[in-house]
Amino acid sequence: MELKHTETGFSRNANQSSHWIYLKIAFGIFRTIFSNQSIPEQLNTHTNIKVLDVRKNLLTTINSLIRNWADQMHEIHGMTLYLDGNAFICNCDNLDFIRWIHTTKVDLDSRSYKCQLSNGSVTDTLTAYNSFSELFADCKSTMWLTFASTLLSTCITISLLLLLYSKRWKIAFSIYGVIRRTIEKKIRKTYQYDVYMSYEGEIVIWIKDVLAPKLEDEWGLTMCIKDRDFLIGESLLDTEAECIKNSRYIIFLITPEFKSSRDCLFELDRAKYEKVTKNLDKIIVITKDIIVTDIPYEFSYIWNYAYVVQWPKEEEDLNDTWRRLEMLLTDCQVQNKQIAR
């Protein structure tokens, strides 16, 4: 800022005291430092200014900081403010400025300055002040709309946070499950079969007619069924051992005929071995037409890691049983290994 004599810049009073009595701001000097649409707020640190001339600039308003400073200067030693010839705007954001022009005790060069309304028409601050209710009727609506929108957003945000907090463990377990399945897919062994069936006797008809269509056609699993998939002429025990090794799961379908089968006990031994070597993911035991207490005692060695499904006799209970079996065979998390009717 350039300091000159009274008419164009700073000057001292007659006795050469340290009090500045006149300040003229030419915004062209400060255009690369301050916006020419506002008075530099640094002025509020000066307490000896009596006259501020900001005429013929591009001011759109006088902010609250400068207004409060001018009021304080007037209370201390009197204050004169020249505002004519600026580009004031009369809108909802400037209501406090319009009121201030007509209520302040600061000596202004006018109480009526030209200003532009929101619709583009030109009026003056005196007319705007006298027609508040007409010109700015929408301001309250806008204010309440903003308040309502803010309140609604806050309520929605709080509700979402509370919902997330209440479901935090479920969300955490879901994320864990996704990560776990993703990792398992990358490192998991490729199996020839999804399910190896261990059974005995005529129950194979039920397997082919009821179980296989559900697992293979609907659930997309690959089953190994001895009476269907084993080749003639190969060693039965070797083939069983190899197929169990190449299966992700094994299902023991225990029926009254199963109890007398020595071959099924061999499959049980192979399943225990493959499970211990972590080559077999799950051992599932389905009991059909037999009570749990009649299961061969050899199965007691696998109860710690076997899943038991008791097949219902009533048709209305089948949907629940199918759903539980699907959970076991499609990598869903099961918290209770003992699944029964």
UniProtKB/TrEMBL annotation:
Compartment list: Membrane
The record's keywords, sorted A to Z, are: Membrane, Signal, Transmembrane, Transmembrane helix
* Cellular component, GO annotation: plasma membrane
| Pfam families for the chain | TIR (PF01582)
Membrane-spanning segments: 143-165
Stated membrane topology is: Single-pass membrane protein
Where in the numbering of this chain does the TIR domain appear? 191-329
SUPFAM superfamilies (alphabetical): L domain-like, Toll/Interleukin receptor TIR domain
Its BP terms in the Gene Ontology are: signal transduction
Query: What name does the UniProt record give this protein?
Result: TIR domain-containing protein
